Amino acid sequence: MVGFEKRYHPDQFLMRDWIKSGRLGRVEAIHIQEMWDMHKTFTDLSPRRAEHLDRTGSLDCGIHSLDSIRYLTGGGDWCNVTARGRWFGEYERNQMPHISIMADLDNGILATLTESYAYCTNITQRTRCTTHTVVGTKGVVNWAWDGDDELELSLVTEDGVETFPYRHMGHNEAIELMATDFSRVLLGECEWPDTLATGRDGVIAQRIVDDALAQTHANTIPVKPTDECLGGE
Fold first, then answer.
1. DSSP labels for 34-93?
2. pTM of the predicted model as reported, rounded to 2 decimal places
3. Which of 17, 21, 104, 147 has the highest CB neighbour number within 10 Å of its CB?
4. 33-45, pLDDT tens digit by residue?
């Protein structure tokens, strides 16, 4: 079992149910944007930030979103991966804090992911911007989160616009649900549920992360911006 606890969040259940039941028609594209400061560069938690950036950059969190795209649409393997990254001044780190990926799943779905740890990371003000959009031939789903606990999903179809409010689920709560399911499987109380990611799911996610990280280094000009580019002294 691989710890992709995001599969247990309420929004994932709703979106997957709508996709499987055909309410969106044929899903052609999924776009995810997740931007936050990853504890900032100057707080007591900044060493944790540095540790993440020295391993997999912003894709430490982004790997969960990449799995989520496959989970929502029934699986598939990644192909045609293109990735770019930016340093945002943190040149001493091994990986970039801001990475964008465009890729196809072999089931025909186009996916884009922008994962950023550079969002307001150098200022004290905190904000975040997370959006998920699922585009189908008969409808779309929109979801946005700015850090509040009260959320809603928007489903747009020929029948109109429906909104579904729900409470944000934290990582600990989702991990507890995941661990409970895994324990029940081990005890023989149930079959393996599709909410539990398998080793194969983990390998597929790791492969696209490795590919994307390699491309960010190969395709990013390793030159610090000039003062003119920065827009100031």
1. EE--TTTTTSTTHHHHHHHHHHTTTHHHHHHHHHHHHHHHT---EEEEEEEEE-TT-TTS
2. 0.91
3. 104
4. 999 999 999 999 9
